[in-house]
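Notes from hallway chat w/ T.B., transcribed later so I don't forget. T.B. wanted the structure written out for a chain they're using in a teaching module, and asked if we could keep both sequence and structure tokens in one place. Agreed to drop them here.
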Amino acid sequence: MGNRAGEAVELRLDATLAQLPLVRTMAAAVAMRQDYDIDSIADLRLVVDEACGLLLARALPFSTLVVQFDPTPTEVRVRCSVSVLNETPLARSGLGWRLISTLVDTVSTAVFDGEVFAELVIDLCMARRAAVA
């Protein structure tokens, strides 16, 4: 990640549901700064909230939720990650995953080995939508 100096944002938070309002606020701020329309701002907030919710369901107690926003003039890329106990991949089914995959242009998930714990990651990209006249 990282296209333009000074534009990328990274949040490191306790991996708890109580932190989701801050993540949603940052998602909206990033989209507003890129001059996204109101609907796109709401969609990005919703998608990031849902992605983090899916990860938090698997997160280790006392771990850290990392959310990286990488905006460009044409898109916003987001990477969300948490430490997990095992390398079981995230289920790509259910309402949450369906919602995410419907609202973004690309979404993927992966599990990476760690020294002690694995890292579960969701990467997504939301392109700027053309204005509707």
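Follow-up for T.B.: Residues 16-127 form a domain with the Heat Shock Protein 90 fold (CATH 3.30.565.10). Might be a good example for the class.
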